[in-house]
Amino acid sequence: MNAELRVFVIDDEPIVARALERLLRSNGFPAEVxxxxxxxxxxxxxxxxxxxxxxxxxxxxxxLDVQQILAQRxxxxxxxxxxxxxxxxxxxxxxxxxxxDFLVKPVDEEDLLAALAxxxxxxxxxAERRDSERRVEERxxxxxxxxxxxxxxxxxxxxxxxxxxxxxxxxxxxKVHRGRAMKKLEVDSVAALVRLLAxxxx
Amino acid sequence: MLWTETILxxxxxxxxxxxxxxxxxxxxAARAPICLALWLASSATAQxxxxxxxxxxxxxxxxxxxxxxxxxxxxxxxxARADLRVDYFxxxxxxxxFSWKQASLALRDSIRxxxxxxxxxxxxxxxxxxxxxxxxxxxxxFPDAAIxxxxxxxxxxxxxxxxxxVTGLETDAGYRDxxxxxxxxxxxxxxxxxxxxxxxxxxxxxxxxxxxxxxHPVELTYIDQLSIDDLLQSIRVVPASSLVLYVQYMQTExxxxxxxxxxxxxxxxxSPVPVYGVTESQVGSGIVGGLVRSxxxxxxxxxxxxxxxxxxxxxQDIPIAGVPLVPMFDWRQIERWNISPALLPEGSVFRFREPxxxxxxxxxxxxxxxxxxxxxxxxxxxxxxxxxxRETEARNAAIxxxxxxxxxxxxxxxxxxxxxxxxxxxxxxxVPGSHLRDIFPADAAAAIxxxxxxxxxxxSPDVSExxxxxxxxxxHFEARVVPAGGGHILAIVRDITARRRAETxxxxxxxxxxxxxxxxLLGEFTASIAHEVRQPLTAILMNxxxxxxxxxxxxxxxxxxxxxxxxxxxxxxxxxxxxQRNRELFRNQRVEKAALDINDVVRxxxxxxxxxxxxxxxxxxxxxxxxxxxxxxxRVELQQVLLNLIANGIEAMEAVDPASRRAQVSxxxxxxxxxxxxxxxxxxxxxxxDRQRLFTLAYTTKPTGTGVGLSISRSIxxxxxxxxxxxxxxxxxxxxxxxxxVYGTAAGDEEAELSARV
Lengths: 202, 758
Hints:
The structure holds two protein chains of two kinds.
Chain A: E1 6-10, H1 14-26, E2 31-34, H2 37-42, E3 50-55, H3 63-73, E4 79-83, H4 88-96, E5 101-104, H5 109-140, H6 145-155, H7 160-167, H8 171-185, H9 190-201
Parallel strand pairs in A: 1-2, 1-3, 3-4, 4-5
Helix pairs in contact in A: 5-9, 6-8, 6-9, 7-8
Chain B: H1 2-21, H2 24-47, E1 52-59, H3 65-79, E2 86-93, H4 100-114, E3 122-126, H5 128-141, E4 146-152, H6 157-162, E5 166-171, H7 175-185, E6 191-198, E7 201-202, H8 204-207, E8 219-223, H9 228-236, E9 242-249, H10 260-270, E10 275-277, E11 289-292, H11 295-310, E12 321-323, E13 326-330, H12 331-336, E14 349-351, H13 357-402, E15 406-411, E16 416-420, H14 436-439, H15 442-454, E17 462-470, E18 473-485, E19 488-495, H16 497-552, H17 558-587, E20 594-596, H18 598-615, E21 619-624, E22 631-633, H19 635-652, E23 662-670, E24 674-681, H20 709-719, E25 724-728, E26 734-741, H21 746-749
Parallel strand pairs in B: 1-2, 1-3, 3-4, 4-5, 5-12, 6-8, 6-9, 9-10, 13-14, 21-23
Antiparallel strand pairs in B: 6-7, 11-13, 15-16, 15-19, 17-18, 18-19, 20-22, 23-24, 24-26, 25-26
Helix pairs in contact in B: 1-5, 3-11, 4-5, 9-10, 16-17, 18-19, 19-20
């Protein structure tokens, strides 16, 4: 299971980075090590499940800078911070910005593995959500423009008659669009339709 | 002189008459003895010249003022020449009482008899009638005499016919000048009454020609022939716009003999208008004055001419000269007629001028003014001074009111003389006469009395401090004692409680700040070390873990384990390096060494700690060895050690009764080129203290301590090449010793390092 999660280690201290890599590998994680943030940021986005182990204090860009850049890019990997000391303001900021965990060196193996387990879970959840979103999008793309409009209004709870009025057509036509759209979207109830659209919006 | 005018009209007839009377032969007969006398005189001159005979003939009598003054002036001229031996005689042709004929015959006979056998060398003929007489009798009476005359008015034609041996003076009568002046002084004058009556008739013909064609047209009225009473009656009623010119007025009534000055007096008495005159003798009789002839001037000029002739000059070689008139006035009349003195001629002589009070008492007045001015100045100065003093007093009172201090004036025995006590520095306000000890608490009174004993004039005030316990806490006072002169003492007592409290609070705050900053410094220091050590530590830990995992798993990957172990070794070296580097950091802090007097260093440190010692009521003593050699060290660092040790001592005594808090700093020279400094206290001592750990970092027995002080102190002392250690104090408490090498010894020169710090 650990093999699913690729861990990107960013630490300017080579011996620490190397030790982390060794520890991760010995626990079955595929690990990639970077001794500067820039090197990591140049790497193409990893499509699979990933997680970033980020050192807080580094010359040049520090951990918090890297976190900000990844958030802007929409990188889907959870971030676990590693810090030399318990710097409370930095930790607070990191967590507020969406860090998954904040570990203090010298970090214990169990703590690290627990954090990585949570990171894996988060990464998986994120991946699943992305998949379902993608699926909804794929189904929605099958609809014609008119069908899409009808579906949107159905999801808002409007009756066929009301939809016809909104769209300037007759109820019978609405019924036809609605039937086709439901079929294309592979849903059999209004509730399922609403859930599907909500997935996309989240 | 007036006689000239009076007598002149009749002289000619008489002269002619007498000329025919004396036969020429009589003159020749009389000449022989004179020639003999001259011969005798000239032969006598060869050895000693006989005295010369000068006869001066005056008209009238000797009592006439003019005659008297003129005669005196002539004599004065002779007297001025002591080398001239002169026999001087005065004779009088008494034409005032007798007819010219009778008078001249009488005088001729008199002279003839009187001067028998005495040749006359020089004759002075005063006035024209006398001149006539002299010329007439010349051949008989004065055959060889030189003749000096003076006449008034127009030149006498007989002078020209007199021939050689004659000279003299001709003076102006002054009528015209006097009238002109009078008209100038009284421009509104319309008439002038001219009084001109001679002894033998009117004198009008003499005056009239002189007053012809006056510059100011006035009517001239001549008064003569009148009796004195009629004259006075006429003068009494003259109009206001007129003047009177008194030439002269001889009485005409037989049996009523008045001199002409006396008539002038009567006229001036009754005249409603100013009366002017022409002779000096008239001035004083009531007339205003005028341009007058002065007998004194005439006399001295006649005398001078006579002297010239006696000196050998020939009379005919001396030209006939004039004599100036003198503007002379009666000051009383000038004032009476309101005549402005400014209009009078320059050089006017004022008679009867009462010197003014200013003139008479000028000196006294000046002195009085000076005295008065001086007095005024003194009074002004005193007033000024008084106002200044009042200002000063008011200002001093204001200052006194504003000063919160209490001031006492005492004598040297401590008895109050005066007091200014705005607050309640003492239990009750001191009453003059009470004693220090009656008012002040015992120790305060003692402090002030000691101050009095110590204080000397001219030196700065003796300052002592004392405290008084009050229900609201202890109050602190500062007493300044200074001699105030006159054996008095001024004591100024100031409540310094607030200042003391502020000082204490500040001191506590400073102490707290020092402790906090020490903590902060320590925290920062440890943080920096921690961060650097943590990195290799993390690496070690994680590598060890992964090695363990590899080894426990199936088919251990030896290569991986080896790599991990190699990294562990690396990381361990890294950690060691960090520690090493930090040690180097301290190693670089070398002590700046200088030659120091350790006793000075101690004194300065004690001075810095004095407030704290006093606050904590610590009885402090110093026992400093004399003649210590200089030590090698850094003044500030050694003081830091001393302050640390003193502070530790004070803190160790906090739990001890204040009465038994004692501390001491001592210095002494040890063997081996070291000076030992010891700080002892009577605190809780070293009971239960780990003396091994006492000087290590972060070891503390105090609730608020950081555990840094002694550790740093030991580092500093070590850096100096000395030693710091602690012992129990005899009689309780602790004593800390440290040593510093003597300057110039091997121990002092070697480069000691602060190796004990980390």
